[in-house]
Structures are given as C-alpha cells and as structure tokens.
Amino acid sequence: MMFAVAMTFIDQTIVSIAAPDIVSELGLSASGMQWVVNAYLLSLAAFFAVGGRLADLLGPRRVVVAGTLIFVISSALCGCVPDGDYALTWLVAFRATQGLGAALLFPAALAVVVAVFPVERRGRALALFFGLTGALTAVGPLLGGWLTTWTWRAIFWVNVPVAVVALILTALAHISDRRRDEPLDVKGALLIAVGMGTSVLGFQQASAWGWDSVATWACIIGGLAVLYVFCRYELRTRHPLINLSVFRDRAFTVDSLVLFFAMLAFVPVFFFASVYAQVSLSASANQAALYLLYFFVGFAIASQWGGRILDKRGARPALKIGCVVGAVGFALWAGKLTDLSMHDQWPYVALAGAGIGFILAPASTDAVNRAIDASYGEVTGITQTVRNYAASIGLAVFGTMLTHTMTDNVESTLRARGVPADQVDSVAGDVTQSITGQADARTPTGDGPVATTMRDAMSSIRMDFAEANQWVFYGMAVALGIGYLCALRHPGGQAAATAEETPTQTPVRH
C-alpha cells in the first residue's frame, strides 16, 4: 500500500519543479500553469469522501486497483500532451482525472493498513506509513529535477513502472476485501463534489480574479452553501455518504481541526519554498529539491516519534508538541529567508518539518481509531478531504498574500531606480506574475530603458521576493499556532478498540 500511494505523494510536488519547462514548451501562461497544479488538488478535494465511502462499499482492494489504474493512465496521457491550442485543456483535464484516481486510491490503501493492525499497535504502524509516504514527497522535487533534464514529460511517465509494481504487489498481498451491503449515496456524492469543487475553485482563482470579484465570492459562498445543504441532507438519509455523527466525538473533531491548520502549511510549503529557492537563492531545480529535503529529514524523524507517543500516551501530547515545534520552526525559517543563504536556513527548515511530522500521523491515526462501526475508508475520506481542502485554501490565501506583497515591493524598487510612474504598475504586475506563477527568474532581454533597469535590479527583486515570502511563512506559523489552541481542546487518552467487522460486512479473501 505504501508503494501504491507513493505516486500520489510524489505527484503533489514533482510538477512545480518542471513548471518552467512546461510553460516554455507548451506556451502556457502563468495562470494556465497554476491551473495545471490546482486541477489535481481540486479533484482530490472534491472526490476524497466518495473514494473513502467506495472503499467501504466495494472493498478496499477493488478500489485500490481502480484508483491505481485511473491514476497511471491519466499520468501517461499527461505526458503525451500535444503541442498547440488544446495543450492546456488536455493537461488540466488529465491532471483532474489523476486527482480522481488518487482520491480513490489513498483512502482505500489506508483502510487496508488500518484493518491489519489492532488499535494498540496502530500508532507506530501508521507513523511508518505516513512517515515513509510523506517522505517520498521529497522524492518528487529530486526526481523532477533529474527527469526534467531529459524531458519534463518523464515526470508523468515515471508513474507507469511504479504503478505496475504496485499492482503486482497488491495481487501478491492477498488483501482481504471487506464490503458493506449498502447503497451508495449518489445525491450526497454529487452535493459534496459540487460544494467542495466550487468553493475550492473560488479560493484557487482569488489571486487571478481578485478578492473583490463577484465570481470569487460567488464560488466560495455558493460552494459553502452547497456543503451546508449536503450536511443537512446527510443527517436525514438512511445510508449517508458520511456519517456526520462521528463529529460528536470531540477528539475526532479536534483531530480534524488540527489537521486542517497544519495542512494550510504542509502542501503549500512545497510550492513556495521551491520557487523561493529558484528565484531568491538562484538555485537550480536539483538544488531546490535538496533544499526541500531538509524539511523531510525533520518530518520523517518526528513522524516516528509521534507514532510512539500516540501508542503510549494518546494523540494530545503529540499534537501539542507538533504545533509548537512547527510554529517556532516556520517563524524562525521566515526570519532567515532574507539572508539568502540556504546553508543558514536548514536547521529551521528541518524544525518546521518536524512539527508537521509530529502532527500528521497521530492526528490521522487517532481520527481513524474513532471510526464508527469500523468504517475506516469513510473516516479516512473525511480526514483526507479536510487535509486537501486546507491545502487548496492555503495555496490560495498565501498565494494572494505573496502576489500583493511582491507587487508592492517591486513597485518600490522600480520607483527608486527611476522607472516612469506610468509604467511602474504594469511592469511590477508582469514581474510578479512571472515569478509567482512559475519557478522562473530569467533576466529580461532587450535594449529599452525599462529592460535595462530590470536587469540591473534583479538582485533587488530577488530580495523583494524573499521579503514577500516572509509574510507567507509567518502566516504558516500563525496557522500552526491556531492548531495548538485547538489541540488544547483534545480530551486526551486513546480511542477504544472498535469492532473490526459489523453484521453488514462480509469478509472476502482472494
């Protein structure tokens, strides 16, 4: 199962490293490239709950296989995108179906792992699962940097051999398929997909449309309204897509809230840190990948430690430690960004990663342990939906913060260098879009006075970008601080063992 979900973790970070080459070859705009990144997260957020429920109804083995096939076929097609007018549509469409495959695959895979281990051993087991699969996210930038030197298309094709091995291992594992003889809540599935998708779309497009845009708020408010209707409907239906009564457990609710605030930083940090390394530090794609590797050294070590704490003392101590360590790490990291030295930053990068490592496995495992009637796929679907919804909001909010701050900084730099006032706004906007839309800091060409000034100002613009990123990383520290306040509300203790099977479940071994 770890091998199967490795693809989905790698894919969250590998595309950002290859962004400049994709944009250059296909002629995409910065906003178009952002859609390529966002389509994956948008689809994940919309369909995770459905994937978790299908794992319960159809059996996790079937859903793992289906998710893997959808994911790898979509990956291969992403790598085969044709040049021309349809390139963006093709790439966004199959990135979305990649997200669908991942949304089916991950909850089912986690349900398999959870079902194998009793509650008292589950903390260390899932710490290993989350630690290794999470650390594999670091492989994304490293692999992306190496493969991009050949062709950026290889970042998608690399999933094919991984998927083949994953399918062979799944067949050899003789996974038990536990099914529920219940109907799928199709209306609920449609409501949550529309609600999640629409609201996430509003957050994602806020930087392009503007926070004062009617379209932005129509999507956000409309999506949240649909989610409210979904919750009301789920409380009345006999076989709901999500059993909302699980939120009556205060520990489960706190676990979900802590995950939400932690994930505001966890996924977005890959994009912002990799672009910062390539723009402000003038690092290559491979050097940017190594920069992110510091984060995962801390993450991998702390995730194992957090799992042991969960098994011995419950989730509350691990969550509190993780939020404090993460908040301090991100705050210290933010303070060092303007030093423009990768060597001076690594202890704080690792500390920030350790904070997330302490949180991720214990919060996810404790939430799953409190599953109602051993509905592991369903509860995993809930927690993963929360995680990806938070990641999308984090990318949107922090992206907007970065864009506005960067624009203001560049405008000040250009004015100080004598660029005419009537050109400052447009030039600053172009610079900001170029840098924040993709990991690219190529020096402007041309003999005009503005181009000449821009070439002379590149070192100042790199500092402007570092200062703009400080606000983003301080924001991540604040998010983890709020997570700490939520962790204080955790009742403590460990979840009682739940029945591994209910009368409606029929174990089937193949």
From TrEMBL:
Gene source species: Streptomyces liliifuscus
Query: Does Membrane show up as a keyword for this record?
Result: yes
Alphabetical list of Gene3D superfamilies matching this protein = MFS general substrate transporter like domains, Multidrug resistance protein D
The UniProt entry's GO biological process terms, in alphabetical order, are:
response to antibiotic
Record's keyword terms, sorted: Antibiotic resistance, Membrane, Transmembrane, Transmembrane helix
- Database matches in Pfam families: MFS_1
Write down the PANTHER family for this protein, in alphabetical order: EXPORT PROTEIN (PTHR42718:SF49), MAJOR FACILITATOR SUPERFAMILY MULTIDRUG TRANSPORTER MFSC (PTHR42718)
The Gene Ontology CC terms held by the record are: plasma membrane
InterPro entries the record matches = MFS, MFS_dom, MFS_trans_sf
Q: What is this protein called?
A: MFS transporter
Q: Where is it localised?
A: Cell membrane
Where is this protein primarily located? membrane
The Swiss-Prot or TrEMBL record annotates one GO molecular function as: transmembrane transporter activity
TM region(s), chain numbering: 34-51, 63-84, 96-119, 126-148, 154-176, 188-208, 214-231, 252-276, 288-306, 318-334, 346-368, 389-407, 471-488
Bilayer topology annotation: Multi-pass membrane protein
Q: Where is the Major facilitator superfamily (MFS) profile domain?
A: 1-495
